[in-house]
Amino acid sequence: MSIEAKKQIIDVGDGAAIPRKSDRGLFTAWRIAFFGAIGTISYLAYSKPDPYLEILKFVPDGIAVTFQVTLGAIVLAIVIGLITGLGRISKNRFFNGVASLYVEIIRGIPLLVQIFYIYYALGNIVKVPAILSAIIAMAVCYGAYMGEVVRAGIESIAKGQREAALSLGMNGRQAMIHVILPQAVKVILPPVGNEFIALLKDSSLVSIIAVADLLRRGREYASESFTYFETYTVIALIYLIITLFFSKIIGVMEERVSVNK
């Protein structure tokens, strides 16, 4: 008697879990956490305007900087990841070797060290603004992870797809652009969404190089008012609301893509 194991996809990342309606437990937990965080921060601001409301008035520009760093880094990371992923599957030994070396080196160095290196170490050679250094460091770091996501997504497409495209008169490049990559996008969307959320949370590390993001602004307020508990409570709730909001958006996008498959 043969027993056939059922294949399961293990989806574990640094970001918030993506809520899907099919997973009722997680979807319910998401709603409790999201609306609970909004309700808590609203209650605190209403019941104790000083300091909670004052904190909320102080940090919006920090939220804008956080989004600026996150969006800039994720766009650049996707570009780097696409190039790296194609290099990882390339039959050219040079390009494959360079892409593989990049992935191994970058994934082996903590993100905070990379931020320090680009801002302080390379800053002795080329002066780069703090916010640009932060975007570059995070993009280089997450580009390595994106490269593996792209590689896995491309390799998940059946080889028959490429062979069919070649039989229709396409060359390898055309087959990749018009046949393979469009199908791979549907596969890599969930992990890219997870990387985006993880990057959003990791953007708090850039405050260490004086980038005035959400955490940095909170730290400035706390150091002036000595309301450390209240300030970091608000900061934590804001991060929670933002990450849960985007996890829901990514979940909706994923469901729509799966329906259109």
TrEMBL record:
Transmembrane segment boundaries: 28-46, 66-89, 101-122, 128-145, 226-246
Task: Check the record and name the SUPFAM superfamilies matching this protein.
Answer: MetI-like
Main subcellular localisation: membrane
| Pfam families per the UniProt record, alphabetical | BPD_transp_1
Q: Does the keyword Membrane apply?
A: yes
Intracellular or extracellular location(s): Cell inner membrane; Cell membrane
Kindly give the CDD domains that the UniProt entry links to this protein: TM_PBP2
Which GO molecular function annotation, any one, does this entry have? Answer: transmembrane transporter activity
The Gene Ontology biological process annotation of the record reads: amino acid transport
Lineage, top-rank taxon, reads Bacteria
The entry sums up its family as follows:
Belongs to the binding-protein-dependent transport system permease family. HisMQ subfamily.
Protein name, as recorded: Putative glutamine transport system permease protein GlnP
